[in-house]
Write the structure tokens for this entry.
Amino acid sequence: MSAITFPTAPWHRAAAARRPPREQAEAREQLPRLARGERILLRTQSARGRAVVGTDRAIHVAGPDGWQAIAWLDVDAAGWDPTASQTVLRLWPDGTHGSTVTIPTDHRFAVFVAERVASTQVLRRQVRVSQQAVAVVVALRNPGDDSLHWRVQVVGAGDGDRESTREAAGRVLAQIRRLAGC
């Protein structure tokens, strides 16, 4: 019986070693700088030809001024716009209003983004805190270290009602954290 020998290095490393150094440098330039331990899960190109990279911690979009990163913790919701063929990200509000980011990609990338957002949001509850206001309480798992971050967004509070609504939202958050054991 004869033995079949296999190369010790995986095929992709062997293929990369055969590339000329210039091609290896160009391939590295097409990737964003990642945080220590951050892993690339999906790489694609936008309809405008820009590189888009999805990692376990963020979306990285190549632009004229370099790479822009959007952490999963900063994304409230994600979806697909079939008429414009783009991924739509709704970011958490900064105290006044949230913003929407669109990335012209394929449907596969939109599904990936929706899955990552869902995996980051451990708990999401809407609770009425006054006659007009609803508090949205969300527990977010940080993909880098699995710690929990809590966000509360109050919708519909009037100006005269703002302080009492904020206090009620704080009580709701404390109660939900206690029930969740956090």
